[in-house]
């Protein structure tokens, strides 16, 4: 039996309508909230890819994952660490042009973006929670696109702000430029958004109860 969960009811309803089966179910669940007692210790494996960094209270989220797993249960996750995208959000949030639409930008910055040693900090937290095995690997990723439409489509999918449709193309232009500046000036990268490339640090985490 596979169970998928998300905090957003609309997403869960869509998943139920399109992907449910006898062996697959979906529920609304806030991984940083209260975990139902009926689910505690019921799972052998847990997976999360490019999602958990949206949760601000990481310790509570991982404690809940620990509680959901049964004895010897394990979990594989991928989260985003440092990324020029977040620097772009911050730059535009300070601009007169966009700051009114990006007032909550810090809400969408990965908790691992500013860390000097995210791997060590994560490992310390996970061991404190009680996980017996903690294996973390962080590496830079340059995700390149074949054309501008593909690049802009991917960038658009990552925008959590309510940008009016008539302003979206202009916003994407400014965001891509801000990311490019960060790529070159802050990270000294050769390829950047000007080369249709997303640069970010990929953090892969394997933990076992």
Automatic annotation (TrEMBL):
InterPro entries named among the record's database cross-references: Methyltransf_11, SAM-dependent_MTases_sf
GO molecular function, one term: S-adenosylmethionine-dependent methyltransferase activity
Top-level taxon in the UniProt lineage: Eukaryota
Matches recorded under CDD domains: AdoMet_MTases
Xref: SUPFAM superfamilies: S-adenosyl-L-methionine-dependent methyltransferases
Domain Methyltransferase type positions: 2-76
Protein name per Swiss-Prot or TrEMBL: Methyltransferase type 11 domain-containing protein
Organism name: Leptosia nina
């Amino acid at each position: 039996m596979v169970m998928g969960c998300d905090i957003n009811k609309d997403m869960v309803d869509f998943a139920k309508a399109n992907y449910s089966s006898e062996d697959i179910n979906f529920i609304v669940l806030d991984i940083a909230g209260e975990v139902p007692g009926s689910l505690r210790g019921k799972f052998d494996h847990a997976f999360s890819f490019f999602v958990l960094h949206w949760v601000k209270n990481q310790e509570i989220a991982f404690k809940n994952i620990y509680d959901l797993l049964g004895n010897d249960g394990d979990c594989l996750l991928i989260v985003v660490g440092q990324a020029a995208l977040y620097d772009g959000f911050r730059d535009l949030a300070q601009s007169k042009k966009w700051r009114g639409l990006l007032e909550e930008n810090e809400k969408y910055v990965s908790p691992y973006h500013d860390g000097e040693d995210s791997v060590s900090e994560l490992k310390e937290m996970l061991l404190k929670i009680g996980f017996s095995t903690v294996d973390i690997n962080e590496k830079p990723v340059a995700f390149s696109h074949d054309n501008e439409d593909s690049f802009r489509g991917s960038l658009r999918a990552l925008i959590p702000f309510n940008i009016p449709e008539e302003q979206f193309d202009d916003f994407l232009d400014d965001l891509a430029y801000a990311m490019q500046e960060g790529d070159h000036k802050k990270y000294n990268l050769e390829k950047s958004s000007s080369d249709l490339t997303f640069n970010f640090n990929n953090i892969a985490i394997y933990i076992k109860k």
